[in-house]
Amino acid sequence: MAMAREVRNPVAEPNGRKMSESAVRSTVERPWGRFTVIDAGPNYQVKQLEVDPGRRLSLQYHNYRAEHWVVVQGLARVTIGAEIKDVARNESVFVPPKTAHRLENPGSEPLRIIEVQTGTYLGEDDIVRLADDFGRPVGNSGAD
Q1: CA dihedral defined by 15, 20, 21, 23, rounded to 10 degrees?
Q2: Disulfide check for 46: which of 39, 120, 135, 136 has CB 3.0–4.6 Å away?
Q3: pLDDT digits (tens, 9 = 90+) for 6-45
Q4: What's the CATH code of the domain at 128?
Q5: For residues 12 and 42, is the Cβ–Cβ distance under 8 A?
Q6: pLDDT confidence of residue 25
Q7: Is 4 domain-assigned?
């Protein structure tokens, strides 16, 4: 019984509010694919990102958070600052705050990434978009 109660306990959102278990596991569709929040707590958030073949996220940066990406399926083409490199399954990269970055799937199968965000603010509105394939506005955009 105690274990069942633990599972139902809400986890903290980065801003200190409580997030329900169903909110943590909800999947959000984007033009490039989708993401699912796996876990969240004070100053961290864990997501699974799935990037569709041939798609890429905006070129963007975040003011308040760093991101750690681990490739679990497929091949990622990653831009961090001026560097572009391919990252294979079981490899990882680190994206510091205020660093332009982009994630791309150059392959023919879905790309799956585990993303760990750390920082003082983790809201979806901490995205400053620099370029976008889907016609979304550049600048402080609110969500990718």
Answers
A1: -80
A2: 39
A3: 333 334 444 444 455 545 688 999 999 999 999 999 999 9
A4: 2.60.120.10
A5: yes
A6: 80
A7: no
- 47 inside domain: yes
Identify the helix (H) or strand (E) that includes residue 33: strand 33-41
- CB 77 within 8 Å of CB 106: yes
Better-predicted residue by pLDDT, 143 or 117 = 117
Distances (CA, A) of 118 to 32, 62, 144: 23, 11, 17
- Structural contact between residues 21 and 37, judged by C-beta atoms closer than 8 angstroms: no
Work out whether strand 44-51 and strand 111-119 pair parallel, antiparallel, or are unpaired.
Answer: antiparallel
Determine the structural domain holding residue 27 and report its residue range. Answer: 11-134
Average pLDDT in the chain: 87
pTM of the predicted protein model: 0.81
Our CA dihedral for 119, 123, 126, 132, rounded to 10 degrees, sits at: 120
For the chain, the domain total comes to 1
Residue 139 lies in a domain: no
CA distances from 49 to 1, 73, 114, 139 (A): 33, 11, 6, 22
